[in-house]
Amino acid sequence: MKGQTEDKDWYVLLPQPVEEEAIQPLKERGIDIVLAPDVKIESVAPLMKKARAIVLRTGIVMTEHLLDQSDDLWMISRTGAGVDNVDIKAATKRGVLVTSSIGLNTDSVVEHSLALILSLYKQIPLLDSEVRKGNFGIRYQNLPRDLNGKCLGVVGFGRIGSRVAELCHSMFNMRIIAYDPFLNAKIKEKVKVWVSFVSLEELCSASDIVSVHVPLNEDTRGLISRRQLDLMKPDAIIVNTSRGGIIDEGALIEALKKRKIAGAALDVFEKEPPDDKNPLLSMENVILTPHSAALTKECVLKMAMSATQRIIDLFDGFVPDNIANPEVLNQPRWRHLKKRA
One of 57, 112, 291, 310 is an active-site residue; which one? Predict the structure, then answer.
């Protein structure tokens, strides 16, 4: 196997446990695996020295400081779709390939997004709570609303956003508008029969439901600010299954408190887990889930297995899939890598 040394003192590092089915292929190759006792920096840092590859979940950020602890790190392989817990610039400088399991979580996140939209629009948590209190008469308040004919505004029309839009259009006859300045013009042309692409301001002011599906980066941090929230209808809701930093959380809390918007359904937060004094935790017009949209039993296994397979591919001399910093391949150390036929 390419990359193995005679003394075999290197290993694959797991800062957090992953599924046994995912690490079994590594074991079958005779690759040593080291599991950190916990995800504290002081626990992981000493283990970085001989790490040849890292299977990374979300419990720790791969900082420049941690990368500096490694003698010869080749790859950071994310089990999830995002790489925002990796210092990409520092990894690239050191010739470390950063890969992700992007795409494998699409169906799971789409399902979760739809579940949040339906739960909030149909007032499921509130109705459940009131029935348990003996308030069966709440049925006469007509709190749920119909999705049919409503306007869905999709922020980010990639794999997940486009699928949410497609299902809401076909199942609920919803009008679809979208904001995505980076989307290929050919894709926009292909879907123009049922999707109207508009500015972010127009989307916020026209939508009954705003659903957020963009990655977190310098361009998108705080994308939904007080200005955008002020434009939304008082009976509109916002759903976020992407990253917490996309929405200005303070502005969102203010908008919810003042009933400038009707509600929010959030799978993600600016700080995770949120502080126990975070006002979102006590709001009745909010549904919260713990960044779990992709954490279904099936999806977690698929992503973990993909992460370890990419490590095996690299060790076998092949270019791994889903490289977040492909410019690293131009460095001399990686010029031997082959693309699979």
Answer: 291
Instruction: Kindly give the interhelix angle for 20-28 and 297-315, rounded to the nearest 10 degrees.
Output: 20
Please give the pLDDT value at position 75: 98
Is 291 considered catalytic here? yes
| 51, containing H or E segment | strand 51-56
Query: From residue 175, how far is each of 114, 150, 203, 245, 290 by CA, in Å?
Result: 15, 6, 12, 27, 29
> Amino acid identity of 261?
I
Q: Check residue 340 and give its pLDDT.
A: 87
What are the residue boundaries of the structural domains of the chain, listed by start? 11-104+297-334, 106-288
Cα 60 to chain centroid distance, Å, stands at 15
Q: What is the CATH number of domain 11-104+297-334?
A: 3.40.50.720
- Alpha-carbon torsion (98, 99, 100, 103), positive or negative: positive
Does the pTM of the predicted model rise above 0.90? no
Residue 63 has what pLDDT?
A: 98
The label of the residue with tokens 């699928």 reads 163
Residue 271: its H or E element: none
**Candidate list 272, 284, 298, 333, residue with the active-site label:** 272
Phi, psi of 26 (to 5 degrees): -70, -45
The model's pLDDT over 139-194, given as tens digits with 9 standing for 90+, comes to 999 999 999 999 999 999 999 999 999 999 999 999 999 999 999 999 999 999 99
Query: Which parts of the chain sit beneath pLDDT 50?
Result: 1-6
Catalytic pick from 112, 163, 243, 310? Answer: 243
Q: How far apart are CA 194 and CA 103, in angstroms?
A: 24
Q: Which CATH code for domain 106-288?
A: 3.40.50.720
Residue 7 is predicted with a pLDDT of 53
pLDDT at 341: 77
**Count of helices and strands (H, E) across the chain:** 12, 12
Q: Report whether 194 contacts 168 (CB < 8 A).
A: no
- Nearest 10 degrees: Cα torsion 202, 207, 209, 211: -30
